Protein: Metallothionein
Organism: Nitrosospira briensis
Amino acid sequence: MPKCDGCGNDYDKSFQVIASNQTYTFDSFECAINKLAPSCAHCRVRIIGHGLEKNGVMFCCNHCAGQKGVTELRDRS
């Protein structure tokens, strides 16, 4: 059985994700998120939605972007 790239667990129901031309194996979405999802530059929460980006810096929401002085971004809701 393939080992999870997040936790090292051997699991018969693992799955693969291809990101940036690299293949990863995971046993859960939790491990995939912890390994691949970017973190908000302000609150450090994992961003599993679209998020906001300015000059390569990711934020989970407009509030967190504003806390870092980035004011021209807006949530799309």
